[in-house]
Each structure stands twice: as C-alpha cells, then as structure tokens.
Amino acid sequence: MAQTTLALILSTAIITITSIIFLTYILSDVVTDLWKKRFETAIKNGIEKNKIQNNDIYILAERWPIGKTNIQHCLNNIFYYYINTADQDTLKLEKVREIIDWHKKQDPFSELPENIRLQLTTLQNLSDGNKEIVLQLSKSLSELYSSKEKNLRSDKRITRISLLLAVIGVAYPIISPYITMG
C-alpha cells in the first residue's frame, strides 16, 4: 500500500511539473502573439484613420514588448492584409509601403543581433562610397540569421515534444501496474 501511494504521488508530481512547464511555453507563445496582433491592429487603425506617422511604429513597438526584429515581420503582415483586402485602397497600401521603406532605411540591420548591427553601422559610417556593399552584406547576414532562427524554433519545438514523450515514457511504467490492478 505504501508503494502504491508513493508511486501515485511521484507520478502525480512528475505529471504536474511537466504540465506546468508545457503550459508556460504555450502561454509565453500566446502572449507574444497577442502583443504582435495588438501592434498590428494599432498600426492598421492608424492607417485607416490616417493618423500614423512613420516613427510612430517605434513608439507603438515600445508599448508592447515588440523587438525590432519583429517589427519588420508585423509590417509584412499588415502589407499582406492590405494587398488582400476587397476594397483595394491604394492610399493605404502606399502608406504601408512608405512605412516599410522608412523602417528599412532607419534600421537596415534590424533583423540582426545587436552586436552585428553595431559593427555594420560602424562599417557603413566608415565606408564613404561603399555603403551598398555593407547593405548587401547586411542582407546576406539577415538571411542567414533568419534561417538560423527558424531552425532554432524548429529544434525548440522538437525538444518540447521529446520532453513530453520522455515524461510519458517514464510515468507510464510507474503508473501502469496500478492502473491494471484497479
């Protein structure tokens, strides 16, 4: 009887801890997506009411913790939205294009990590006539960095699933004899 109680307590603890970890990951992703959606909605509302200026995107990004790497992604989503709307208002579409171009000119290295961004900015300031080469380098580095980020997200997802399967694999042999007894 003592072994049964101990096994049930242990398996319950393992399942509870695993559930808390798994829910933490899920809630973190949900909250981040919610912040991005609010950011996109605020920009869409500003465009709809013709109240938004280019530098407002940074002010809105600070309102919700949207990193500079996510701003471009959100702007691309807004661009996609206005391309696929039924009314095809070209003024709104042009405003989105203007904001995207402004963002790329303001922070051409936004999708890169901070240390690489600072080094490229320094290189761009030092090279008088070779700014195009630095921009090409930044685009190549951005592509490499974004593909690395996609791979990391994929690896993280696989790790989470593996953790869940490992916990189930450990908990099942402990619990199964007691389930078959009952």
Shape: elongated
SSE pattern, N- to C-terminal: HHHHHH
Number of helices: 6
| Residue runs with pLDDT of under 50 for 5 or more positions | none
Query: Biggest sheet: strands, sense, closure?
Result: none
Radius of gyration: 24 Å
Strand content: under 5%
How far apart are the first and last residues' alpha carbons, in Å? 13 Å
**How many strand elements?**
0
How much helical structure, as a percent, in the residues? over 70%
* SS class: mainly alpha
Average per-residue pLDDT, rounded, comes to 81
What this model shows, in words?
With 182 residues, the protein is mainly α. The chain is built from six helices and no strands. The protein has helices at residues 2-48, 56-63, 68-83, 90-106, 114-126, 131-181. The protein is elongated. The two termini are 13 Å apart.
Chart the SSEs and their pairings.
Blueprint: H1 2-48, H2 56-63, H3 68-83, H4 90-106, H5 114-126, H6 131-181
Annotation keywords:
84% helix; mainly alpha; 182 residues; 6 helices
Kindly summarize this structure in a few lines.
This protein has six helices and no strands. With 182 residues, it is mainly alpha-helical. The longest helix has 51 residues, at 131-181.
